[in-house]
Amino acid sequence: MSGIENKTDLLELLEDSCSKHSRRLALRYKKQKIKYSVLNKRASCLSLGLRFNLALNPGDKVALLLDNSPEYIISLLAVLKARATAIPVNTFLKKEEIDYILSDSQAKILITSTSFWNKIKPLDNNHDSSANCPEPLVLLVDQPAQSCRFIDD
Q: How would DSSP label each residue in 25-94?
């Protein structure tokens, strides 16, 4: 028995893999190689930033508009670690479709990269401003995976 049958969610599997195989390769993307221990640390760091710097609470919604990359995996794990809900957004959608998803989902935070800036800025508010659907805060996660910065304008 491998022990996987006893795990209930992705985070438990990650923690288990990190404790057993911390030095093993978890992700390989182009020339980047990320070990389990590094993946877990980066996701934990981002999760803490989301919770304490951006006031993300369990159950809040976070939209992810990122290419298939380590940043996507790290961001998804960070959202799960914060016990929030991840909303993946297809990168091939048009600006209007992305605006609709962000508004309809009531995402509190949008995690994206500078390559999608033209699709999100300025965000269109096509809904009543008195509704409980404010624009999400935007967090840009740029290459390399360990760097991120907060955008508040």
A: EEEEETTEEEEHHHHHHHHHHHHHHHHHTS---TT-EEEEE--SSHHHHHHHHHHHHTT-EEEE--TTS-
